[in-house]
Amino acid sequence: MFLSSLIGVFVFGWILYRLTVQLLNWFSIARKISKFPGRKGYPILGNTLEFLGNPEEIFNAVRENVREYFSIGTFRAWLFVFPTIWVHDPEDIEKLMGGVANNEKSILYNTMRPWLGNGLLTSSGQHWHSRRKMLTSTFHFSILQQFLNIFNRESRHMVEIIENHLNEETNILPIVSNFTLESICETSMGVRLSSMKDADEYRNSIHDMGYIVFDRITRSWKLAEYIFFFTRDYWRQKRIIDILHNFSNKVIEKRKLQSERYFENENTNTTIAKRKQVALLDMLLLAQKQGEDIDDNGIREEVDTFMFEGHDTTAVCISFTLLLLANNQKCQENIYEEILSVFGEDDRQPTNNDLQELKYMERCIKESLRLYPSVPLISRKVSEDIPTKNGYVIPKGCSAIICIYDMHRKPDLYPEPLKFDPDRFLQENCLDRHPYAYIPFSAGPRNCIGQKFAMMEVKCVLTEIFRRYVIQPVDKIEDISCSIDMVIRTKNPMRMKFIRR
Ligand code: HEM
Fold first, then answer.
1. What would you measure as the largest C-alpha separation in the chain, in angstroms?
2. What is the rounded CA–CA span in Å between residue 239 and residue 256?
3. Fewer CB within 10 Å, N or C, the chain?
4. Residues that bind heme, according to the entry (predicted)?
5. Residue-wise pLDDT tens for the chain (501 aa)?
6. Pocket of ligand 1 contains residue 381 by CB under 6 Å
7. Of 488, 285, 306, whose CA–CA distance to 406 is shortest?
8. Which of 258, 300, 251, 294 is nearest to 276 (CA)?
9. 3-state DSSP assignment of residue 431
10. Total-model pTM
11. Which residue is closest in CA terms to ligand 1's atom 23?
């Protein structure tokens, strides 16, 4: 009896101690971030109400906030009780992301953990480091080379769909999204989504999960797990995640059985290389077989992470590039000329060497990602005090939000920022630019592991489109209103007309 009371007192005391430490820490951060400029918030809710509304209103609210503090480079906002500093100056961003010190993701990424677990996007510390090392080899050039067949086949399939919409107003995003989802599913898991009977349920669940994640970030009281637990979305999320995990588990099990046969040979590397169609999943299974620190759960986390990071990001990049080129006929013609110079009249599918030569096209993609970076905001947990260029100190313990979209439109970094000008990315024009002034794929050690993959995929699809069609605009680019969920979007459908050359 005495012993159990003693344990009870000890446990209670320990909890009280932890709560006090956390509270004192919170007050200390609150005091420090109050020195930053920022709009006045409400008690407890902070600035949350400013970021409520439909996705277009939220997008605009963020813009208004950032513009107000453009010249300072940073400002503070309270998302419910969570302190955040928003950063849009390349020097400050470099301090944040240049090394490994702040490579832990902020509380906003907790919303993705139920689905992605401790996958590459959401993990931190040593776990992230060893996974990153392992996964970097799965994105090796020779593996990407194999994916080219898939990109080429799916690009051809996509233009067959466009053929059914010639000369009419076409909303491009759903067509492109299908293309990128098919491509990422086959390259990461080795299966054709369209051939699976539960494909629609899986596709819809990815979409629904994105909605819940975004909703939790904007209604930031739902970031607190103990509040989210009492919402309807918590239970909805549980059902969605069951569907997503069951799908990946099923595919992984099937692939594992097939792979056993390939692994029988001692020299598994050679066997993998000889395999007709390699998937990122095969590389992870091989790593597991070779004793790397990854179990079945870890493999699923990474496959889910590729599915999440690798389809919407690329789909909006392709769609915005088409929209911008529809509005810039001269650039479109330059791309066509370049395609002719590489392929002539030949309709053959691009090789990697061909893609390397499409340098003007690459500049157009880069300029499109400057104006419409697929991921307009990213975030980090700050692990050490960071002095900013303008004399403030971002305190350890708060979340930093990196405003990629707004930085890419700063006139001091990009004169006439709204003008679509691919030549900004000519080598000679990049020399004087700060290395952190252009970061559509993030930057530093935690940059996007899939950027070469993405560039290859985008170039394949643009080649197939522009060698066949001229794209005419339906809406002027200046009339397009953006909105946001997990990626940047447009308020209205992204309409354009495809005319056969
Ligand atoms: C145009 C296409 C893409 C863009 C603009 C893009 C952008 C980004 C950005 C901004 C990040 C940093 C995210 C953060 O810190 O929160 C990121 C990370 C990541 N991306 Fe991409 N991405 C693209 C395509 C892809 C593709 C195709 C894949 C996979 C095949 C991929 C896989 C990843 C992964 C796994 C991470 C996490 C890396 C880490 O934390 O170590 N991305 N991407």
1. 90
2. 26
3. N
4. 448
5. 677 777 878 887 887 877 787 777 777 888 888 888 888 888 888 888 888 888 898 899 889 888 888 888 899 989 888 899 999 999 999 999 998 889 899 999 999 999 999 999 999 999 999 999 989 888 888 888 889 999 999 999 999 999 999 999 999 999 999 999 999 999 988 888 877 778 888 888 988 998 899 889 888 899 889 899 999 999 999 999 999 999 899 888 888 887 776 665 545 555 555 556 688 888 888 888 888 888 999 999 999 999 889 989 999 999 999 999 999 999 999 999 999 999 998 899 999 999 999 999 999 999 999 999 999 999 999 999 999 998 999 999 999 999 999 999 999 999 999 999 999 999 999 999 999 999 999 999 999 999 999 999 999 999 999 999 999 999 899 899 998 888 999 999 999 999 999
6. no
7. 488
8. 258
9. coil
10. 0.93
11. 313
Residue pair 368/321 in contact (Cβ under 8 Å)? The answer is yes
Cβ contacts of 213-217, under 8 Å, gap ≥ 24:
213/111, 213/112, 213/486, 214/55, 214/484, 214/485, 214/486, 216/111, 217/108, 217/111
ipTM: 0.99
How many angstroms separate the CA atoms of 279 and 283, rounded? 7
298-334 pLDDT, tens digit per residue, is: 999 999 999 889 989 999 999 999 999 999 999 999 9
The answer, yes or no, to whether any atom of ligand 1 lies below 6 A from the CB of 132, is yes
State which H helix or E strand residue 155 sits in. Answer: helix 141-163
Residues 6+ apart with CB under 8 A from 183: 147, 150, 151, 154, 311, 314, 457
Spatial separation of the C-alpha atoms in residues 295 and 444, rounded to whole Å = 28
Using the Cα atoms of residue 17, residue 21, residue 26 and residue 31 in order, give the sign of their dihedral. positive
| Contact in structure between 316 and 488 (CB atoms under 8 Å) | yes
Is position 448 annotated in a ligand binding site?
yes
Q: How open is the CA angle 62-225-77, to the nearest 5 degrees?
A: 25
What is the SS3 string spanning 253-301? Answer: HHHHHHHHHHHCCCCHHHHHHHCCCCCHHHHHHHHHHCCCCCCHHHHHH
pLDDT tens digit sequence for 26-37: 778 888 888 888
Q: Is 442 in the pocket of ligand 1 (CB under 6 A)?
A: yes
374 CA distance to ligand 1 centroid (A)?
10
Please state the length of the chain: 501
Tokens of 254: 């099937």
Q: Is 123 in the pocket of ligand 1 (CB under 6 A)?
A: no
User: Rounded CA gap, 282 and 147, in Å?
Assistant: 13
Bridge partners, 470 (sequence order): 499
Distance of alpha carbon 40 from alpha carbon 66, whole angstroms = 14
